[in-house]
Records
---
Amino acid sequence: MKRKENSTNAINEQFLFQVCELNSAIAMISGRWKSQIVYSIAEGNNRFHLLKRELVNISEQVLGRQLKELEMHAIIVKREIPGSVPAGIEYLLTNKGRDLVPILQHLCDWGKVYAGGKGIAVPESDMHEESVAV
């Protein structure tokens, strides 16, 4: 969904992208399925039907859209498989995509410790000032 360029949301988003590259990076990989798609391609599931089989709950429409967005951000490239009949397409990680895999792994590890793999909830003990490390 495209925002109006002069909307408050668009202006705030642009400001955040200018003040911190982290916001831009998160925007590139945000999306419910993108990290799983990147992992799956890294593991060799580099064709649409293989990705669909690996990510059983994703719809074909969403998978196609997420692949296009990852390609737009140069995290993956789409390549025709030479000599395949009918013409086959495979998805490959770019250097940017390969560099992203260990970062996603670290975020996954962080999530296992602090988010428990579920919806993010801040434990009450973390809300107290004395538990904050300086």
Note: The two ends are 40 Å apart (CA to CA).
---
Amino acid sequence: MTDRTSSRSDLPIEEAVGGACPSFVTAMDIIGRRWTGIIIEAIGRDCTGFAEISRFVGHIGDTMLAKRLRELETDGLVERTVVDTRPLRVRYTLTIAGLALLPILEDITSWGHAYGATENPTGTSDTHERDTRTTEEN
């Protein structure tokens, strides 16, 4: 019965049994790395040079940024191009796979606005206050 599917009709049962779908795990391994999403967003917003990306991301060291850019290139999400000028310039662009991530990252941002824990001026998280209100209302 290899044609049976799990409760999600798009996952073959072999992928769903015994854990998460391997494609999901791979995707989360890539986009779950610290700084990855914001680097992709930066390049998607036309920050194509190393310094531009660094300014957009903020609070990331040059070594870590270089490492993440190499990983994203290896993962097939970012393309690195050396521009033959004096001095040489390196530009980063998103591949088709990287561009396909942009709307997903926008959805994650929307979710973060709606449900994410953000600090408010009182120092407590919005999620904690929502949970407290819900408990008090019941």
Note: Confidence is low (pLDDT under 50) at residues 1-9, 121-138.
---
Amino acid sequence: MTELSAHGAAGARIATELRDAILSGEYAPGARIRQEDLAERSGASRVPVREALRILESEGLLTLVANTGAWVTRLTLADCEELYRIRERLEPLLLTYSVPALSPAEIDRFAELAEAMENADDVEEFLRLDREFHLGSYSGAETAVLGDLVLALWNRTQHYRRAFTRVFRAEGDRSVHHDHQLLVAAFRRGDTEEAERILTAHIRRTRLELARHPELFSEEPHGHRNPQPRHR
């Protein structure tokens, strides 16, 4: 393996590890990512670390400021509104492509996931199950662009989905669970129109709930004074 390809492989590995850490909530929006810390943690040189940061910048997960550093991208309420409106239109389309290809065994798994989400002990468990449910429900679609685009939108809004989950659990709102059960029923019938309608409302509800809590978009990471510009 040449030095260039070795750096590329290391950069991809570091990007995967950092992406997982961001999505799991280890780094909050606005948290600074220091190259030297990342290099030490990954046992790599600065070259693949910089490549990893560029990869995650291209995915919208990091914001790089020239001669300053890298921060986990923090969305404004307007940013989140825009991303969720895009999701409202794209994800139902992706689901329409996918539903006819879902097997009975896959649909049974979605039913198990829906029940497990209702009994999830904490937010992180719910998020893991919810991600498997929704991204799994799109797995039957064969697309050149749409699947990757939806995954990128999911990743960019992960932190705010976490915030929404805390809100609906605290308020005892069961509508999310009801939606999951309705989706499973639509999958069993092969009713793509009904599945599309339910999913649109499901995503819209999250968007509207987040709009009720603008304070979620002004939080600073604990212990940081952060010069990162908000993403626009």
Note: The chain is about 65% helix and 5% strand.
---
Amino acid sequence: MTEISSPRVGRSRITVLGVQPDSQPFRIVEIDGEFVGEAKSVTDVLQIAAAYGIVVHDLDDPDVVRWVGGDKFTWGPRPR
């Protein structure tokens, strides 16, 4: 049998939290579990990552970026 007995649980270096309500909505960005900035677009996430020496080749790779409360296209409050 070649499968492992438990599923692999990885930890993304970058975590982008859900949209924060504000006149200009933003998402909190954490790197290695620490707050590092606010992002208002995917470009902001990439710039923050680069400032910390992280090159992101694939925003959909859960080993690199974890999106909480929406995906890379979620930058405003959810409609009610």
Note: The longest helix spans residues 42-51.
